[in-house]
Amino acid sequence: MQDSDDENYDFEYEEDEDDAEQGGDVDVENKYYNAKQMKGDAPEEAIEEFLGVPALEPEKGNWGFKGLKQAIKLEFKLGHYNKAVEHYTELLTYVKSAVTRNYSEKSINNMLDFIEKNAEDEAANECMEHFYSKTLESFQATNNERLWLATNTKLARLWLAQKDYTRLTGKVRELHKACQREDGTDDPSKGTYSMEAYALEIQMYSETRNNKRLKGLYERALSVRSAVPHPKIMGIIRECGGKMHMSEENWKSAQSDFFESFRNYDEAGSLQRIQVLKYLVLTTMLMGSDINPFDSQETKPYKNDPRIAAMTALVDAYQRDDINQYETILQQNKDLLADPFIAENIDEVTRNMRTKAVVKLVAPYTRFRLDFIAKRLHISVPEVQDIVGFLIMDKKLRGKINQDVGTVEIESRADLDRMHAVADWTTAIRSLASVVLNESEGFKSDDALGGGGGPSFASSMPESFMSSARGPAAGTSGKRKPNRAPGK
């Protein structure tokens, strides 16, 4: 999530703002500009020329400071990390007296941004950590709190990139404390640094899947009103929030967070906006929404962007239930799965697509083979069996799987309805018989009627009906005895 296009949240200073400050000996100035002309074609010679500038000054001054800056940048780009650290240590001795506080702060910030953007391997990262440590030692002594906060934030970002969560945890706590007043409340003047500390910690919990800590911190960060953070910081916080909601299968909240994240990244000019837009499209499919994610004013300009063409085609196939087109797009754009978050969640979308395809495909059949479905959908037989089993368990398909022969028998809908009707009719008859036999006065005994000797309706009924109605007497088998002729 931390790309290198805009890491300085105080909006970049011009790289060569120092060239506006003119003055000093003409020979020193000429040597400096001569070295600048050599940078592109002969960087090694340019380094020597730049390092010769400070020696021409009788005391530390502006041109020596600028010469060291240029030499350090070239040394870092060429991989001369030890020399770069050595000369950076020398450069820091200029900030106390040779140049003004504001000028030195801007220059050091630009230097650290340059180092951060051009660090491409482990050795470069180790060199960068030395730069941060040297800077902290120097500016802590001069009590420059703003640069101290900025440098510590960069150091925390480095540890996040290295997944050094132990040191990162300690550093963000230190940053939070530095952004508070003595009474423990947030200091509004340091709100930007406080929000970035939240963003770093939220990213850490997102990467370590600690959703419990992430949720509390996420809600706390959104409730901060004492600062107007850089839009990229809010983009990071919202992106992590969207991923958290996705893990909880809260698609609606995830969609909202990814949209806000995209909007903030877009405002900041961050390249991460493209990746988050892909997440937004993915969430739309998981929601089963028919709304096109590119209908909004913010996303519409990216509809035909070649970087998200595959995701655009996927959502189109998904909304048309075109499983063949969907599978083809996935096969032709396997680079989509290079993002672990997309790879993790696209399986659910694919399963939904295949499930709908199976239901549509088997609708006309009462019996089908699993390999027939596998061939039509271009997936394996075990995958088909898994989908059919899910449909049966979810009662979206009524049938039984015969694993021995690889077939599925679908229960006849007509037979099933007839069976249910017979069961309902039998229940109704039993209920009616119960009412007639137990509640009708014609079947009650004389005692129950409170009376006397008049013949009841029950007594006038044939014995055969009464015995069958009452059921077998106690101690009998329930079989009816044959009638015998009198005298026999």
UniProtKB/TrEMBL annotation:
Xref: PROSITE patterns: PCI
SUPFAM superfamilies: Winged helix' DNA-binding domain (SSF46785)
Major subcellular site: cytoplasm
Subcellular location: Cytoplasm; Nucleus
Gene Ontology cellular component terms for the protein in this record: COP9 signalosome; cytoplasm
Keyword entries, A-Z: Cytoplasm, Nucleus, Signalosome
Biased composition (Basic residues): 478-488
Protein origin, superkingdom: Eukaryota
InterPro entries for the chain: 26S_Proteasome/COP9_Components, PCI_dom, WH_DNA-bd_sf
Pfam families named among the record's database cross-references: PCI
Polar residues bias (residue ranges): 457-467
Limits of the PCI domain: 247-415
Disordered: annotated segments: 1-25, 445-488
UniProt record similarity statement: Belongs to the CSN2 family.
Subunit structure and binding partners: Component of the COP9 signalosome (CSN) complex.
Name of the protein this chain belongs to: COP9 signalosome complex subunit 2
